Automatic annotation (TrEMBL):
<feature type="binding site">
    <location>
        <begin position="207"/>
        <end position="208"/>
    </location>
    <ligand>
        <name>ATP</name>
    </ligand>
</feature>
<feature type="domain" description="Fido">
    <location>
        <begin position="91"/>
        <end position="229"/>
    </location>
</feature>
<feature type="site" description="Important for autoinhibition of adenylyltransferase activity">
    <location>
        <position position="42"/>
    </location>
</feature>
<feature type="active site">
    <location>
        <position position="171"/>
    </location>
</feature>
<dbReference type="GO" id="GO:0005524">
    <property type="term" value="F:ATP binding"/>
</dbReference>
<dbReference type="InterPro" id="IPR036597">
    <property type="entry name" value="Fido-like_dom_sf"/>
</dbReference>
<keyword id="KW-0067">ATP-binding</keyword>
<protein>
    <submittedName>
        <fullName>Fic family protein</fullName>
    </submittedName>
</protein>
<keyword id="KW-0547">Nucleotide-binding</keyword>
<dbReference type="Pfam" id="PF02661">
    <property type="entry name" value="Fic"/>
</dbReference>
<dbReference type="InterPro" id="IPR040198">
    <property type="entry name" value="Fido_containing"/>
</dbReference>
<dbReference type="InterPro" id="IPR003812">
    <property type="entry name" value="Fido"/>
</dbReference>
<feature type="binding site">
    <location>
        <begin position="175"/>
        <end position="182"/>
    </location>
    <ligand>
        <name>ATP</name>
    </ligand>
</feature>
Amino acid sequence: MFERIDQVKAILNISRPLPKYTARSLREKLFLEWTYHTNAIEGNSLTIKETKVVLEGITIGGKTLCEHLEVINHRDAITYAEEIVHKEEPLSEWQIKNLHRLVLKGIDDEYAGVYRDQQVFISGAQHIPPAPFLIKGEMEQLMSWYEQAQKESLHPIVRGAMLLALFVGIHPFIDGNGRTSRLLLNLELMKDGFPPIVIKMENRLAYYEALDKAHTKKEYGDFVELVAIEAEDSLNLYLRAININP
């Protein structure tokens, strides 16, 4: 699968830079879908059309302030992730906390960008996240793993998927872990020239099952495959936009 994906990405690389307005419209399309689906997975009731309107600065009647903030905050978090990519900054705990701070801004400022001080449980999952006093050490181990993964030149899809899975397993924050983890995944992919991917709402069950399998059995294959399929889908979208049949 990775050989095919790398071939498709090589075709895209040769075709870059894409026409200005094509690149802009692709970015807007993927970032809208990313924002809609990542929030929908977490229970936000805004439709994709309503999400688009909120991003344009319009309030939707009958929807909560929190649901509006989740859209606006995710847009700002994406912008921050793009800045990290543009500046070629290495991943750090400080960046992770900043991403989370943006995700929860105005929703729960007390815990925005702050590691949790309480035990939490993941609804519907067998895996139980570590106790609060273990989080600092677990996050340090995660960053050590990440540095080693870079040295070993893990495929970006594997590295991004593993980063998401390991982060969610730690569940370092009171809330917003899912959205932050998917931001981290796409941050890693974008660093290597991949378009962002969208974990779709309709694939939520498979997404959660693959994650729980990774956490309870240390088997990450299903989750990596799920990410790889979405990565190929985004690449194919870009190629079709420039009239190349993948």
